[in-house]
Design brief:
Blueprint: E1 2-5, H1 13-26, E2 31-35, H2 42-50, E3 53-56, E4 66-70, H3 77-84, E5 89-92, H4 96-112, E6 114-118, H5 124-134, E7 139-143, E8 156-161, H6 167-179, E9 183-187, H7 192-205, E10 210-214, H8 220-230, E11 235-239, E12 255-260, H9 266-278
Parallel strand pairs: 1-12, 2-3, 2-4, 4-5, 6-7, 6-8, 8-9, 10-11, 10-12
Length: 280
Amino acid sequence: MKVIRAHYAGACYGVQRALNLALKQAKEPTKTFTLGPLIHNPQVVSQLAKQGVSQIDSVDDITRADAVVIRSHGVTPQVMRAVSQKSATVVDATCPHVSRAQRAAAQLAEQFGCVIVVGEKGHPEVEGLVACAREKCSCVYALTSIEELPDNLPDHLGIVVQTTQQKATLDAIVAHLQKRNITVEVKNTICDATSQRQDTAAELAQHVDGMVIIGGRNSSNTTRLADICRQYCKHVFHIEHVSELYTCTFDDIQVMGVSAGASTPEDQIEAVISYLEQLS
């Protein structure tokens, strides 16, 4: 088996920055916690706990003596204010691209009075974007398909995008709204790292017999990578750990492609590639 790694794969700048900030804070005498998982990678979250960075899920669990790291996906303005009132040390590890999207959501809401957030309902980043917009207006919708668009929309509105969305999804929604004679102001806040990983994975998937996608199953960008590859490749393995490959058979695969989500550190990618190469 020949193994080919996608040109862009693995941890992005925002994820690495969040990890660095959390580990730096863990060296201080205060107890260090992340409010929710720092990133969507269960293995990394477990490793952080072993290094003194534990997870809490409620602001109520914070004490003044704690240090709280805000996750890379960001939080709502309401949560950030609540954390600040606890008088704990706050380390904001929100990805800069997410912060930019939050500012764009608020600006569009103030300007147009109605905002569509192209993103997955319930995802923490999307919840933050929606909340930022709703601080300025009440007409806010989160959706990922044309079918979810409401019938009654104003003639002018703003659009902001979850940083890990596919541009094709954004383009389809914008085109449909324009057909309805709705004027849209689009802030394309899709992260370049996301686009690069999606494009190179799609390109590789068209020229291999199988693809291994590494990353948390709770990671939207990793799941989307796997979905994209399935459009071009019959055999796609979405795994969180190399051990998941131990029971797989690769009889029909002579060339295997490997890619990884933006929350996947280099050591996890190297472990997978090393295992696959020894099967050659």
